[in-house]
């Protein structure tokens, strides 16, 4: 699919509700297990998405749009949620994610981006030159990636309980 | 996690809303692409879940609970949705999935299953002897597996659009 801002928005505006439908009200028995060292629980996934709303997508888009002399992005802390989510509930995080996302999409829509802006570049600290279009496509794909990861970490809790069906559920061993 | 019927129900009752939040109102540009021959689009995933509600989980649970002489399950048609979903909209399928699931969970709750029933066995046509508990755990894990698969097939539409970020999104090449 070629990138189209309206198409990307269709994903970005649905993600918070999809996480809320899946995780809202789920007990910690589901939301707290992870997939091993340095992996995310369902709870961690939401915190990670919140950190992205605060520090990644829109701040990086601003750097690109400003086209200043230094267009290098701040590195993104993939584990910031370990500090930031401490002591909070899944319900609080789901709320905050939805609120931040709505505000960020209002900002994005307000920019009325066209092809000229979407082609502007910034500098990723590891990946080098990237366009605004690539950043926005990544925002949507990153959402979907963490939704898949969240479904996977939940499913893995039943790796043993499914018995012989494990052979039909490759996700449980991924 | 050890199997517990209440825990399993927490997943089973959330899945239809998670699919609706993710796919409700999405245009075919998102819902119709698949991952290649004999794979499912987002639309196909919902049809597949519907077919499971009709022919798999509860019918198989009934065979187990009846403990008749022949406890062998009917084979499950993984591609039945190709016929059954033809000409229908994603919105219709999402509605039907939610309705069938709600009815099936009412049936399941009405059985008041205890440890004795959960340990009863049926015969899977390929996997052999399986317990009711394993069937119910698989129902929940299967939901989560198809939610992950749906997020993945959507994300893959941006495999090219994300540019160099593809290196950070292994889901796009899975």
Question: What features would you highlight for this structure?
Answer:
two-stranded antiparallel ribbon; homodimer; 174 residues; 57% helix; mainly alpha
Strand order of the largest sheet of chain A: 1-2
- What is the subunit organization of this protein? homodimer
Average of pLDDT of chain A: 97
Structure summary, number of beta strands of chain A: 2
Structural class of the helix and strand makeup of chain A?
mainly alpha
Main sheet characteristics of chain A? 2 strands, antiparallel
Count of helix runs of chain A: 9
Largest interface between protein chains, with number of residues from each side: A-B, 54 and 55 residues
Q: What radius of gyration of chain A results from the CA coordinates?
A: 18 Å
Give start-end ranges of low-pLDDT stretches of chain A: none
The H-and-E topology of chain A, N to C, reads as: HHHHHHHHEEH
Describe this structure in words.
The structure is a homodimer of 174-residue chains. By secondary structure, the first copy, chain A, is mainly alpha-helical. Chain A has nine helices and two strands. Chain A has helices spanning 5-12, 15-23, 28-31, 42-55, 57-66, 81-84, 90-110, 115-118, 132-156, and strands at 121-124, 128-131. In chain A, strands 1-2 form a two-stranded antiparallel sheet.
What layout of secondary structure does this protein have?
2 copies of one chain form a homodimer.
Chain A: H1 5-12, H2 15-23, H3 28-31, H4 42-55, H5 57-66, H6 81-84, H7 90-110, H8 115-118, E1 121-124, E2 128-131, H9 132-156
Antiparallel strand pairs in A: 1-2
Helix pairs in contact in A: 1-9, 2-7, 2-9, 4-5, 4-7, 4-9, 5-9
């Amino acid at each position: 699919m070629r990138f189209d801002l309206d198409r990307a928005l269709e994903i970005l505006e649905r993600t918070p509700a999809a996480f809320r439908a899946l995780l809202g009200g789920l007990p910690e028995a589901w939301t707290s297990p992870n997939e091993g060292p340095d992996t995310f629980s369902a709870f961690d996934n939401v915190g990670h998405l919140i950190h992205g709303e605060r520090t990644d997508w829109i701040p990086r888009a601003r750097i690109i749009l400003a086209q200043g002399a230094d267009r290098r992005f701040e590195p993104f802390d993939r584990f910031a949620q370990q500090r930031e989510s401490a002591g909070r509930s899944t319900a609080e995080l789901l709320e905050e994610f939805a609120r931040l996302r709505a505000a960020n999409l209002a900002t994005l829509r307000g920019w009325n981006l066209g092809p000229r802006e979407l082609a502007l570049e910034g500098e990723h600290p590891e990946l080098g030159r990237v366009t605004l279009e690539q950043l926005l496509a990544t925002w949507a794909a990153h959402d979907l990636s963490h939704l898949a990861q969240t479904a996977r970490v939940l499913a893995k809790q039943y790796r043993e309980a499914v018995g012989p069906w494990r052979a039909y559920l490759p996700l449980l061993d991924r």
